[in-house]
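I hope you will forgive my troubling you with a question about protein structure. The matter concerns a single protein, recorded as an amino acid sequence and a row of backbone structure tokens. Please examine both parts with care and let me know of anything in them that strikes you as inconsistent. Here, with my thanks, is the record as I have it:
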Amino acid sequence: MASSSKRSLPCVLLLLLAVFHHGCSSARAHRRAGDMEGSMSTDDSSMIERFQRWKAAYNKSYATVAEERRRFRVYARNMAYIEATNAEAEAAGLTYELGETAYTDLTNQEFMAMYTAPAPAQLPADESVITTRAGPVDAVGGAPGQLPVYVNLSTSAPASVDWRASGAVTPAKNQGRCGTHNP
């Protein structure tokens, strides 16, 4: 009997530590939310609540209260843009709708720097043009216009193809920063 209680003691201690840690982190999150509220209006308070829900949904956390405040301001500006754009789109009869994403706390400049490649105009001229001594060549190595063209006369093309139903289209994937994804 004493042997089994010795084995369960570490489990009980681990459980108590987990409960204590959860309580501390929850209290810390509430303090941060309180720090952010300060002298904000009712509209700001509802935006803070949205921000807290968004952070939980996307598992976001920030190193300092100052960084969290800055991210909140960016989030609030982006949400104002999203809501205004959606209202304009609806009034114009457009069918798209913008919404929150994992990037709603980033400025446009931050997003572009993190997730896009430099514009081709920024590449050095010698890297953007490929030339050969032989002149232009097509994909199979011959000069354009000199290769036979094959046409399948036994069937006709369908009027439309749903590539999703064929399994040719996969869901969008987060490939991370430009140049870090695997082909």
About this structure: The mean pLDDT is 74. The radius of gyration is 28 Å.
